[in-house]
Amino acid sequence: MDSVSPPAQSLLKAARALSTAEISDALDYFKLPGSALGIGLQAGEPRIFGPAFTVAFVPVDTATPGTVGDYLDNIPQGAVAVLDNSGRVDCTVWGGIMSKIAEHRGIAGTVINGVCRDTAEAQEVNYPLYARGRFMRTGKDRVQVSTVGEVVSLGDVRVTPGDYVVADADGVVVIPQARAAEVFERALRTREVEGKILEAALAGTPLGEARRQFGYHTLQRTGH
């Protein structure tokens, strides 16, 4: 696979201020998927920004059961744990001990295609935890890690290791690493234009006129 140059640090710094809505609009502009339907904030700070560290789970092999959480030791500081438990809501793959260790290690947050538990402990340390919901039943002896560092999914959104994961109060978006620079640049441009529209409207310009003046209706349209 060809190597992908990461966005410049200055661009990443600016992109950290973007909302998921602004990024979602930019993804639409490039006709890219990325909005993870049904996954929302369960505990902690409502903000995540970082590269994906991916883990997939499968039903447990009763003959040779595997582990559920030892991969945590390998997640780099600033990365986002993206856990694919196939959307299962009958058992969790993330709990309180993991939230506290992850926060201590400087992991950016956790996003789960499935459910979590011990949300009070994540809230206690303000650790960002996103999932399809909360359920107390353990995944131990029910699921096990199948792959680490491979392609996973958050519902209908494909996540490759290194893709950028952004989350806020509105949900979670995933930006392909290979397209991150242009997506972030487009989202920042849209933010700039929308700021001008708002400024003009608050100064007395009719909203429709302000939108026409700054090309609002073309912001999410590609040129092809």
Can you tell me about this structure?
Substrate binds at residues 95-98, 117. One of its GO terms (molecular function) is metal ion binding. There is one protein chain. The radius of gyration is 19 Å and the shape is elongated. β8 (152-154) and β9 form a beta hairpin. The protein starts with 8 loop residues before the first helix and ends in an 11-residue tail after the last helix. The chain is built from six helices and eleven strands. With 224 residues, it is of the alpha/beta class.
SSE layout:
Elements: H1 9-15, H2 20-29, E1 40-43, E2 48-59, E3 80-92, H3 96-105, E4 109-116, H4 119-124, E5 129-131, E6 133-134, E7 143-148, E8 152-154, E9 157-159, E10 164-168, E11 171-175, H5 180-202, H6 207-213
Parallel strand pairs: 2-3, 3-4, 4-5, 4-6
Antiparallel strand pairs: 1-5, 2-7, 2-10, 8-9, 10-11
Helix pairs in contact: 1-5, 2-5, 5-6
State the main characteristics.
224 residues, alpha/beta, Glucose Oxidase, domain 1, 2 domains, 9-stranded mixed beta sheet, two-stranded antiparallel sheet, 11 strands, 28% helix, elongated, metal ion binding, metal-binding, RraA/RraA-like_sf, Putative 4-hydroxy-4-methyl-2-oxoglutarate aldolase
